[in-house]
Write a structure and sequence with these properties.
Glycoside hydrolase, eight-stranded antiparallel beta sheet, 6-hairpin_glycosidase_sf, 28% helix, Glyco_hydro_92, 714 residues
């Protein structure tokens, strides 16, 4: 579960590299495509046919599976290309992956931001080879293959080669160097060597005409002999791919250790920006892993956009905006603010070039394929960035795009009628109007701000006053219960619509299964009737999916932060672990892992509102290195999770916030402004085993709150 992979990655880098089996969804592993129940095995063993580049992280059926440029060390003839060999003795570290193939070849991979370096240690053999397959793409599942449209490969001799393949409208170029003295270097097509040939050109490839093609290096090996293969990638041609390789690998040869050391240092810097104290070994491992997964995507390929000619940031693999906008984008804004700003600049440029802010953006040309999942989600990150005073963006120009984007897809119908179906888009668009209104008001465009804010109040059209839930509609990967507890910009009015604090809390209690019987989890190939019965329970999905990941914090708005503490603590303890199945669902490009990071810190970002909610943390202390300083979270009265004689964690002790101080002053609210967190300071939380009165009276802000008195505003 989680759908992550153990391959080599660089923090928010362009390139990854991993063993390739063709399995769903990353190309690594043994499982076939699965969206419900226990996944089925695609292969009986862990195996690989080579090592590929560009993998998804934590996605599901995204229909864009990359796995380009397969490199295969072989002892067999070229006819055996595509066969798989067993994997053993795997090692996975940040920026490094290694395994031994069943042929006895030890394989090591590392990556930089735009390069990958492979090191193969061969046994003695009269005709070993390294085969590079430029035709490879996608997965070995139904409808998972990616076929290049055009391609060009050139062998330049002396261990150098280059090529470009057009994959889904994107020209992916690679420049390659192989340290293989005395070996022959040849091009090949359809598993046949082209002796003496120096160039292959394919003007039009179809599924029916595709035959594998690439380059090969071949020669004898002594026991323990190593061959290093260096690959530089670019979306702007082979010359830029070569420049990328030279810049990151430097002049030293071999370059494996140099690149690995640099990437390891970058990971150390990024992972060091959030530190925790205390906790069991298992919980610390899960936390570090979650932080690592949170910093793999999006992929930044500066000055690499194939769609516009100018330099500047270019980001892709923003594959699950409907997940990451709630958790991961606020995390990036906090600990890598320069990259967060680059992402927004890139998304604004996408909007300028393609006509809309993407709901999902991959390394592919074409219309936004994820418009059904959500609307106006980038608006939340833009509103937060403006509230934080990010000066690197042209905010007047950004506002133009924010407003224009509100009329795209479902937005036109929302503009006309104030409600759209799927009904969740009504919430998205109302929230997007609220975010745009905040930016407009800050830029002194009061007339526009008033109009946007008035339309933002139409969120209520999505709800049935008779039930206090969303109206019946279609729902993406969920039901109306899953979406009914989203944290809106007017939670006070939302709770009033449900009948008040008590009624709203009772609905949440039912949703989270308080005092309910245990639920039976679906098994392998669950029938439709079994799945329908599960959905009919109208229960929290347990972080198996994204629609309700913020719902535990809805209790805060009803004056019950103690309930939030119970639900979050249970999720942190029982739904995450260090072994197989250690994530409760897709990691969603880091969205779920970012949830874990925030929940463990006792903070939760409310995207688009410049707001954090405060909860009992999972660790005794933590330090968040933000762009403006350090935000320190201290506790007193924290009790560690007990560990049994078998080494397993036991049920953790209940912990609730009894009182809080911020920079030494009493804090009576369960919320902080994001600016406060980003600026740095000390939050001290006194914890105890029983719920307290802390945070019950003063609620987080809502749109319908009366204007604050001057002394409160200060």
């Amino acid at each position: 579960m989680g759908n992550t992979h153990p391959g080599a990655t660089s923090p928010l880098g362009m390139v990854s590299a991993c063993a390739y089996s063709g399995a769903y969804p990353t190309g690594y592993g043994r499982y076939t495509k699965n969206t419900e129940g226990v996944p089925e095995e695609m292969f009986e063993r862990l195996q690989a046919s080579g090592f590929t580049h560009f993998q998804q992280s934590g996605t599901g059926a995204i229909r864009k599976y990359y796995n380009y440029v397969r490199v295969t060390p072989m002892l067999q003839p070229l006819d055996a290309l595509g066969e798989s060999w067993s994997l053993r003795d795997e090692v996975a570290e940040a920026g490094y992956y290694a395994a031994t193939l069943g042929t006895g070849v030890r394989c090591e991979l590392t990556v930089g931001t735009k390069v990958a370096v492979h090191r193969y240690t061969f046994p003695a053999h009269s005709s070993a080879r390294v085969v590079v397959d430029l035709s490879c793409g996608g997965l070995a599942i139904e409808h998972g293959r990616t076929v290049p449209l055009r391609a060009q490969v050139e062998s330049m001799g002396h261990g150098r080669a280059q090529g470009t393949v057009a994959m889904e409208g994107v020209p992916l170029s690679v420049y390659l160097e192989a340290d293989s003295p005395g070996w022959r270097q040849m091009l090949w097509y359809d598993r046949r060597l082209i002796d003496g040939g120096t160039r292959l050109d394919f003007d039009s490839i179809r599924h029916t005409t595709l035959r594998p093609f690439g380059m090969l290096f071949m020669g004898p090996t002594e026991p323990g002999q190593t061959v290093e293969v260096r690959l530089g990638f670019s979306l702007r041609g082979c010359d830029q791919a070569r420049e990328n390789l030279e810049r990151e690998c430097g002049s030293a040869r071999p370059a494996f250790d140099t690149v690995r050391s640099g990437t390891r240092a970058r990971w150390g810097d990024h992972l060091g920006r959030v530190q925790v104290e205390g906790g069991t070994p298992a919980r610390r491992t899960v936390f570090a892993t979650a932080l690592y997964h949170s910093l793999i995507k999006p992929c930044f390929a500066d000055d690499e956009s194939p769609f516009w000619p100018t330099s500047g940031p270019f980001a892709f693999d923003v594959c699950t905006m409907w997940d990451i906008y709630k958790t991961q984008l606020p995390l990036l804004a906090a600990i890598v603010p320069d990259r967060a700003e680059d992402l927004l600049e890139s998304l604004i440029r996408v909007c300028e070039e393609e006509g809309n802010f993407p709901i999902g953006y991959r390394m592919a040309r074409g219309a936004d394929r994820f418009y059904r999942q959500g609307s106006a989600l980038v608006h939340t990150a833009l509103a937060d960035a403006h509230a934080l005073g990010r000066a690197g963006l042209d905010w007047n120009w950004a506002l133009v795009h924010m407003v224009d984007d509100l009329r795209r897809m479902y937005g036109e119908e929302f503009f006309e009628y104030g409600v759209v179906h799927p009904i969740t888009h009504t919430l998205d668009l109302a929230y997007g109007h609220h975010c745009a209104a905040k930016v407009a008001r800050a830029l002194n465009d009061r007339r526009l701000a008033d109009d946007l804010e008035a339309r933002s109040r139409q969120w209520s059209n999505a709800f049935d006053p008779g039930t206090g839930l969303l109206r019946d509609s279609e729902f993406y990967e969920g039901g109306k219960w899953n979406y009914s507890f989203r944290l809106l910009h007017d939670m006070a009015a939302r709770i009033a619509l449900a009948g008040g604090d008590r009624a709203f809390t009772d609905m949440l209690d039912r949703f989270f299964g308080f005092d309910a019987a245990p639920v039976t989890q679906p098994g392998r190939r669950p029938p439709l009737a079994e799945m329908a019965a599960g959905y009919a329970l109208n229960r929290f999905e347990g972080l198996n999916n994204e629609p309700d990941m913020e719902a535990p914090w809805a209790y805060h708005y009803a004056g019950r932060p103690d309930r939030t503490a119970q639900v979050v603590q249970a999720a942190l303890t029982w739904q995450f672990g260090t072994g197989p199945g250690g994530l409760p669902g897709n990691d969603d490009s880091g969205g779920l892992s970012s949830w874990y990071v925030w929940a463990s810190l006792g903070l939760f970002p409310i995207a688009g509102q410049n707001l954090f909610l405060v909860n009992a943390p999972a660790f005794a202390g933590a330090v968040l290195r933000t762009g403006g300083g350090e935000f320190v979270i201290e506790t007193s009265g924290h009790r560690e999770t007990p560990i049994g004689v078998d080494g397993a964690e036991r049920d953790p002790p209940a912990q609730y916030v009894q009182s809080a101080t911020l920079n030494g002053r009493p804090l009576h609210t369960t919320h902080l402004s994001a600016a406060t967190v980003h600026r740095g300071g000390v939050l001290h939380l006194r914890l105890g085993p029983e719920p307290s009165g802390w945070g019950r009276k003063v609620r987080p802000p809502s749109l319908s709150d009366p204007p604050a008195r001057p002394e409160e505003a200060r």
